[in-house]
């Protein structure tokens, strides 16, 4: 079984190398690698050491092809991208009704770490801001911190197809400096939105943010969601198919921090970003995109990552609400036979 999937992956990689789409991605990479705007996150020293020039773009299809250019193997911390996937696990653990009674799905237009709850219901606004993410993490079932963490890591392994580690210095710094998140957690405890095991849950939240991934992992995670929850290469189910649309919906409305409205308007691909420099983006039924480039704009989104997704959406008509036939047909470009022969 393992050998077969390795062979399939090898075969698809070979095909991907020969594809005109690969040339397209290479051009994108060349076009944006010199962009030096933005700044690497520096709220903890471990993030500030990220190399601003690191840049990787990976696209994985629902049938298991992988296209990558640039640095797709360097590891960085997943940070807020974890929130979308842990939300999926909470839905599996408790069902939609319960989860929604504790965490709403309304965009805030505020910064991800805002200390704000819905005035009427006292719920955090959505699972993509820190408040909602901490409440979501609190819901993850398991006997004690070790089992709960293992369930989260096992889930990410199903999405990526490989075992993931935690960057311990990042975790310890997040914990040492995380008083704002602690304040948010206590506010939610006051309103009975989370259970009274704050230290354990915050440790779990800081650990999930400190998981190490590369841009290929982010593309596989997105491709798994695009493939209704089944990893396209291992064929393992990562999330109950019933909850895939819940996760993708909140990515669309809330995934890019307080840039989510403009992102949906300009790009129209459900996505989630993290301050480690990653973006994971899902085109349902078709592809997952993973990008890595540490310099962030003032809202905390990767500057080069935004440009890459914008161009992919525009050039291949991937905006969710685009009804027109795109100039370039994505699948034709991937499979090596663009109709206009334009590569
Ligand atoms: N660990 C960060 C925090 O909780 C998450 C940052 C992010 O990617 N937005 O503040």
From TrEMBL:
UniProt keyword Acetylation, yes or no: yes
Record-listed substrate binding positions: 80, 130, 174, 181, 205, 257, 275
SUPFAM superfamilies: beta-lactamase/transpeptidase-like
Origin superkingdom: Bacteria
Protein EC: 3.5.1.2
Catalytic activity: L-glutamine + H2O = L-glutamate + NH4(+)
UniProt-listed GO biological process terms: glutamate biosynthetic process; L-glutamine catabolic process
GO molecular function, one term: glutaminase activity
Sorted UniProt keywords: Acetylation, Hydrolase
Pfam families on file: Glutaminase
Keyword Hydrolase recorded: yes
Subunit structure: Homotetramer.
PANTHER family: GLUTAMINASE
Family: Belongs to the glutaminase family.
Name this polypeptide is given: Glutaminase
Taxonomic source organism: Oscillatoriales cyanobacterium SpSt-418
